[in-house]
Amino acid sequence: MDIFCHHYNKLSTAYYLLLYSYFVQCPCANQKAMNPMLRQSLLYLSTADWARNIASNWFLAKRVARRFVAGETIAEAVEATQRLNNNGILVTLDYLGESIDSEADAKEVVSTYQQLLDAINENSLQASVSVKPTHLGLDISEELCMLNLRHILTTAKAHNIQITIDMESTKYTDVTIRMYRTLRDEYDFDNVGTVIQAYLRRSEDDMHELTREHSHIRICKGAYLEPPELAFPEKMDVDSNYVKLTEEYLSDDDQSYLCIATHDENMITQTKQIIRQHNIPQDRYEFQMLYGVRSDRQQEIASEGEKMRVYVPFGEAWYPYFIRRLAERPANLWFFAKNLFTTA
To answer: What average pLDDT does the structure give for the chain?
Structure first.
């Protein structure tokens, strides 16, 4: 009976996702009303332990998630990177995981990143690396996280590899920017950057300051559930802020570097207009997209002679990352639910 209930819950969940995603895709649906509600539901699920436990042990879910995750091992990540490099596409690698609560776990994460950096060097990959502060022990202490970041950055600098400190929820925004500045200015790591999220109301002020500091920044829209007093709830406001921050950052300083992370064609088009209007040289920016999302467009941008970098995640802790990708685009949810039924 327990086994039956376990599988029934999985199939019920798949049926719910399929039905919900159908209405989101349906032309008769009120997408303006449904999409925010769907996004909030999925972002809740991305942090729910009960949902993670079900999905993480469900073979079909793991199989479908492989569209967005390169695999669970460094070898699989290297193989995916080589394929992209062979097509003229750069990569940033991310060892999936977040919110660890023991120093021993943090030590294992650092060891994995050291192995990853060695693999990038040994295989002559065109790849940088992205790290999450909570994966390196930030929830234990800022001191521990800083120590682990310094270990990773030291190895990366020896191999001439760029490290980006990913931005997580607003709980960590101040400390992440503070650690970035400390590592860059006090420890002289010139191979470190961080991320600014356009959906946060504070980001305009942050970007103004970071521009004056000649920073290395990735700008993205943001993928965490935040209250409206901290983040713009409407997509049109997020898009408007994204374009505004991009233009100000690129035009106000000639030494900063911007990673333009978006799959939104309107954002890509407007960014290209900004680049042409202000005569921004190609050594000041690059485009970034996620592994498994708009792969044909990635190739087109690379073929146009632009720097195109793909964010390639790997590891066993794929669930939170995967659910946030579903929350970003209803089409991803349709793909997931439909494939659960066709492979069940």
So the answer is: 84
Q: Phi/psi zone of residue 172: left (φ > 0), alpha (ψ -120 to 50 degrees), beta?
A: alpha
**Comparing C-alpha atoms, which of 334, 333, 312 is closest to residue 77?**
312
What mean pLDDT comes out for the span 218-237? 93
* Region of residue 96 (phi > 0: left; psi between -120 and 50: alpha; otherwise: beta): beta
- The rounded Cα 203 to chain-centroid distance in angstroms is 17
Orientation of helix 319-328 relative to helix 49-56, angle to 10°? 100
**Together in a domain, 204 and 265:** yes
For residue 13, the model assigns a pLDDT of: 45
Instruction: Tell me, yes or no, whether 199 and 50 share the same domain.
Output: no
Structural domain span for residue 309: 74-317
% the chain with pLDDT above 90 = 68
Q: Which residues are catalytic?
A: 166, 218
C-alpha angle with apex 133: 129 to 137, nearest 5 degrees? 120
Query: Same domain for 327 and 313?
Result: no
Contact (Cβ atoms closer than 8 angstroms) between residue 58 and residue 337: no
Q: Kindly report the pTM of this predicted structure.
A: 0.82
Could you tell me the two tokens for 184?
């860059």
255 and 218 in a common domain? yes
- The CA-atom distances, in angstroms, between 333 and each of 34, 60, 90, 199, 343 are 13, 14, 27, 22, 15
Span 84-95, mean pLDDT? 98
